[in-house]
UniProtKB/TrEMBL annotation:
Role: Essential for recycling GMP and indirectly, cGMP.
PANTHER family recorded: GUANYLATE KINASE, GUANYLATE KINASE-RELATED
Domain Guanylate kinase-like, chain residue ranges per copy: 6-184
Protein's name according to its UniProt entry: Guanylate kinase
Length: 206
């Protein structure tokens, strides 16, 4: 029996491109994927569950993990740390499940440094004009923030070369189709499966 390890997929792209929406639509379709649970030092909110919403840690515990290189990426927002725990990801992959991480560009580049065997997917806006409309339509940002976000988005788009695949988020369903096709093709890549297949054949041939 050939037991395949899971693959870590990283979905990333500029702010406002619709990463969360695409990820939710993908998970509605594909129940086999495991969402990467983040770790945080912020307090648990009402209704949140340890190991489902987040892994909750004290600041000291989190910093110990940083120093021990046990996080694939981390950042600090408003006085709290957030990060992706290496152990959870590796254990899930070992069990044969694919792990899916939806993250900002800076975080994705950290993951690439710490886990280069991951598959990096860049979600691309149909146009910068469309990206601006999406940010404005959220109705939560001032004009200055919209300008800053667009400037940042242009810089992030220039980092596209660090990724393995680019998917244009024009229609959500089409974007999800493409991501599912990427997942399937990655599981058929020779350099991923050849070692496992050869081991099984050698065992069978004795």
């Amino acid at each position: 029996m050939i037991k395949e390890k899971g693959i870590l997929f990283i979905l990333s792209g500029p702010s406002g491109v619709g990463k969360g929406t695409v990820r939710k639509a993908l998970f509605d379709r594909d129940t086999e994927l495991k969402y990467s649970i983040s770790m945080t030092t912020r307090g648990k909110r009402e209704g949140e569950v340890e190991g489902i919403d987040y892994f909750y840690k004290s600041r000291d515990e989190f910093e110990e993990l940083i120093n021990g290189n046990r996080l694939l990426e981390y950042a600090e927002y408003v006085g709290n740390y957030y990060g992706t725990p290496r152990d959870y990801v590796e254990e899930t992959l070992e069990s044969g499940k694919d792990v899916f991480l939806e993250i900002e560009v800076q975080g994705a580049l950290q993951v690439k440094e710490n886990f280069p065997q991951g598959v990096f997917i860049f979600l691309f806006p149909p146009s910068l004009e469309e990206l601006a409309n999406r940010i404005i339509n959220r109705g939560t940002e001032t004009e200055d923030i919209v300008k800053n976000r667009l400037t940042e988005a242009k810089k992030e788009i220039e980092m596209m070369d660090a990724y393995d695949y680019v998917v244009v988020n024009d229609q959500i369903e089409t974007a999800v189709d493409k991501i599912q096709a990427i997942v399937k093709s990655e599981h058929c890549k020779r350099n991923r499966v050849a070692k496992q297949y050869k081991k099984v054949l050698e065992a069978e041939l004795g």
